[in-house]
Amino acid sequence: MNEEIKQIAERLKGLRDALELSIDDVAEVCNISPEKYAELESGTVDISVSILHRISHAYGVELTTLMFGDEPKMSSYFVTRKGKGISVERTKAYKYQSLAAGFSKRKADPFMVTVHPKPDDEPIYQNSHAGQEYNYVISGRMQIQINGKDLILEEGDSIYFNSELPHGMKALDEKEVKFLAIIL
Asked: Which stretch of 16-25, 139-148, 150-159 has the lowest confidence by average pLDDT?
C-alpha cells in the first residue's frame, strides 16, 4: 500500500494512543466497526477524507495534520504558491493538495483535488462527513453523485452541497479532472 497511507495510519494510531482511546472509541466516532477501524490503522487500506474529517472534528485536531503530519502555525495569513501545497495521493485515483495547511484553527479546509480516470464500469466510491462542501471544476469534466443523484460538472461549474449525504465523483472522458474542494 502507498507509503503516504501508512504514514496517515501511524498518525491515527499515535493520536489514539496520546488521547488514551480504544479502537472501539474511535470506531464509534467514525461510525464504522472496530475491525474496520483497526484495518485503517494497519495502513493496508485507503483512509477516506470523510473518516479523517470525523476524527479531526471529534478530537480537535487539524484535518491537514492527520493527512500531512504538519502542525499549522500561522494565524494571520498563509500563502500557498502555485503547485506548492503539500499533497497526498491516497490512492492512484485521487490526489489532495492542501491550500491552507499552515493556517491554524481554520474554519474550512480547501484542497486542490486531482481525480484520475477509471474504467467506466467501476462504481463511484461514496463517502460522507459532517458539514458542507463546495467543489469548483478547474479543468476536465466529472460526474458527481450525491445521495444517488448523478450530475455532470464541466470546467467552470461548481456545486455546494450537504456533505453528510453520501457523495463521490469520477473523472470523465478518460482524462483527469482538477477541482477546488472546500470542506466546511
From this structure: 16-25
pTM: 0.72
Distance (Å, rounded) from C-alpha 181 to C-alpha 184?
10
| Residue 155 cell numbers, joined | 470546467
What's the length of the chain?
184
Whose CA is closest to 38, among 63, 65, 3, 12?
A: 12
DSSP letter for 92, please.
S
Residue 182, pLDDT above cutoff 80: yes
Asked if the model's pLDDT at residue 179 lies above 70, the reply is yes
Q: Burial level of 92, CB count in 10 A (0-12/13-18/19+)?
A: exposed
- Are the C-beta atoms of 96 and 49 separated by less than 8 Å? yes
- Name the 3-class secondary structure at 111: strand
